[in-house]
Structure formats: C-alpha cells, structure tokens
Amino acid sequence: MEDFGYLRDGDVYLDSACQSLRPQPVIDALNRYYTEHNSCGERVKYAWGRKTDELVEETRAAILKYLKLKNKDYSVSFTLNTTYGINLLLQQFKDGIFKKVMTSDIEHNSPFLATMTFAKRQSIPREVMVRERDGSINIDNYDFSKALVVVNAASNIDGRKLLNIKDIIKKVHKQGGVIIIDAAQALAHSSDILEKTEADAICSSAHKMYGPSLGVMIVRRDLFNKIETSFIGGGMVDDVEKESYQLSAESPNHAYTKFESGLQAWGEIVAFGEAIKWLEKRSKADKQNLEACTQRLFDFLKSQPKVHLINEEPNPTMSFYVEGLDSHMLGAALSNEGIMARTGYFCVHYYLDHIMHYPPLIRFSFGYHIRPSDIDKTIKILERILG
Question: Hey, where are the domains in the chain?
Fold first, then answer.
C-alpha cells in the first residue's frame, strides 16, 4: 500500500499488536503540527493555538463517532497509553463503592496487575473469571453485585473477542457494578463489537490503531461522581486559592480535563484524528487483502505438524510455538531474514505460563500494511527452518 511506502522491500513487519505502522497521512499530520501550528492547546489565543484547539476537538468528536457514542453520554480524554488510562481510573475511585473487583484470565498485565493493587488498596476480594475458547465469558457463572469489572474486548494473544460484551455490560449494570473495557486490541480491526456499548469506560491506545504513541479514555459522564480527583495539575482548574481550587471538569464542556493533567501531546492528538479518518477510508480491497493474508498464514501454520497454534480461527494476531525449537531463537532467526515478530509471553504471563504452561511463544500480528509478498517470504523462511 502506498501509504506505507517507507517500508523497504524485504522488511516484513509482524508486530502490529504492539504498535501498528503509521500510514503516511498520519505522519504528515504530526509533521504539520510541528511545522505549521506548534502551540499549546487550551492555553493561548493566537492563531496557531486556535488551530490546535480546533483539530483536538475534531479528534475527540471523531472517536465518539467511530464508536457510535454520544457526546451527552461520554467524554474523551487523552493519556499516555491503555495501561495509564486503566490505572488513572482505578487509582481515583472513591472508597467503599465496590464489594469486589473482577478481571479475566487472558488479560494483559495492564488490567491484571491494576486490579491486584486495587483490591489490596480497597481491602476487597479479587476474582479472576475464566474466558471461553471463543473469548466470551459465561455470565451465569458470576455474580457482579457492586463489582468493578475490568476486561479486554479482544486478546493480544490470538485476537479472540469478548463476543457477549453487551450481555456482560447489561448484567454488571443491573447488579450495581461498573465495567471498564480494555480496547487496545479491538479498536483497529474489531471496533464493531464496541459500537453503541454502554461500558462505563473504554481505554485504548492510538498506537495500536495506526496513530501516534498516545492513550485514549472514553468515559461515561455519570461515572465522574464515583471519581475523587487526586492526580491533578495544570490544565485542570479554572481557579486556585491558597487552600482550594475549582476543577474545570465541573463544566460539562470541559469534563475531559478530569483526566488530563499538565500539557498534553497536542501533535499526537491531532495525528490520531487523522488516523481515525484513515481507518474509516479503508476500502473493501484493503480489508480483503488483510483477510486473505491472515487466512493464508493461518492455514500454513495449521498445516505444520510441529507448530502448536494457539488460535482456533484466523485472526490478524496469531501466536504459536514450534515443538523442540526455542521461540526466542526462532524470532532471532526470522529477524536475520528481515521478519520482525514478537516472542515471549506478551505481558500475559498468568494465563500463558501458569494456566496453560506454554513455553515462550512467537506472535505474528499484522495490519493494513501487509503485502502478499510478506506472507510469501514468511512462509518460505519458515519452511526452510522447520525442515
């Protein structure tokens, strides 16, 4: 694809689950910020600042539109990454609201560890739910009464989705609980399962959906009354006296400032808006190419007797190990051929190591930059290595 023209022939990038490659329009948008209107948002009145403010607000609106959510119900704030967003919420919930905290066994360390520390600090029990092989949770097995639930919408192991996400949200709310969704692996290629959800918060990362390094939080406005703001600084207040201050977030139009302390990454926010536009413009041919490349590599891995594929169905994210071959050594061998892939446990140590007892894995994950020639090369090299 021409938007990834900087990708050299022979370089095969298979680590999009960590961070996707950035298409040229996103890179151009970031460069325009630095060369045409480099300025502090929400602080200045000169023309450059007004331009930055305009584009930042467009990005907030674009995110809600992308997920088919309404501004009257949700506010969009920017952070460092998904991990930061989840912790920013969990560290600021008022005491005594929840009777327990719940997560699932296939979670990234971001929510898995954050729920551990939350349970200890709040002196409440923590429950780890079992995810089915298709990614769903059997909600009949769990009581969500006044629980804080933090789960992913899609796994970074094999892309399995939380297929019954809306049923879970409905039951959590019916039983007086709150649910936070880790959408880091879902927003780029599986955003449909999050459209019109009523989750209390959705945390994600722009750098996993073709944008710059940036985090985003989409938070229900009625969740704010459960938050006691303690992570605070510049950009969050309208007035300050010697022993008191007035939060800007008290105004509905500035609710997002509740989670935006200090100077924000204005250029990255602007470029993220461009990434969303770019994603929405993906053609049927682009999607078919991604699906075809996914299917072809899945079929190859599935056909190899020594390959133990974690995936049960094709997904742009797929993990496996090779019997009798160290995955880190395999990753190094692939790297020597220009193929870039992740090895290890992908920050899902509990499930992969202690539940499934897998050896370290290798993960292939790709996006719209993928070329049929990349799959050709990967299969050719693997055939040679696997013998």
Answer: 2-23+283-386, 37-279
Q: If we measure between CA atoms, which residue out of 336, 299, 305, 338 comes closest to residue 318?
A: 299
Dihedral, CA of residue 344, residue 347, residue 352 and residue 353, to nearest 10: 80
Burial class (CB in 10 A: 0-12, 13-18, 19+), 349: middle
Instruction: Report the alpha-carbon distance of residue 242 to residue 108 in Å, rounded.
Output: 42
DSSP state of 201: E
Domain covering 37-279 assigned CATH 3.40.640.10 in the classification: yes
Same CATH fold assignment for domains 2-23+283-386 and 37-279: no
**387 residues of the chain, pLDDT tens digit each:** 789 999 998 999 999 999 999 999 999 999 999 999 999 998 899 999 999 999 999 999 999 999 999 999 999 999 999 999 999 999 999 999 999 999 999 999 999 999 999 999 999 999 999 999 999 999 999 999 999 999 999 999 999 999 999 999 999 999 999 999 999 999 999 999 999 999 999 999 999 999 999 999 999 999 999 999 999 999 999 999 999 999 999 998 999 999 999 999 999 999 999 999 999 999 999 999 999 999 999 999 999 999 999 999 999 999 999 999 999 999 999 999 999 999 999 999 999 999 999 999 999 999 999 999 999 999 999 999 998
User: Using CA atoms, how far apart are residues 278 and 272, in angstroms rounded to an integer?
Assistant: 10
Q: Are 259 and 290 in contact (CB under 8 A)?
A: no
Element (H, E) at 341: strand 339-344
Amino acid letter, 290? L
Model's pTM, two decimal places? 0.96
Q: How many CA atoms lie within 13 A of 129 on its CB side?
A: 28
- Nearest partner of 322 among 313, 314, 310, 312, judged by Cα: 310
3-state secondary structure of 188: coil
Which phi and psi angles does 76 have, rounded to 5°?
A: -110, 125
C-alpha span between 283 and 286 (Å, rounded)? 5
Let me know if 150 is exposed, middle or buried by CB neighbors in 10 A (0-12, 13-18, 19+): buried
Q: How many CA atoms lie within 13 A of 174 on its CB side?
A: 8
Position 80: which residue type? L
Domain 2-23+283-386 class in CATH: alpha beta
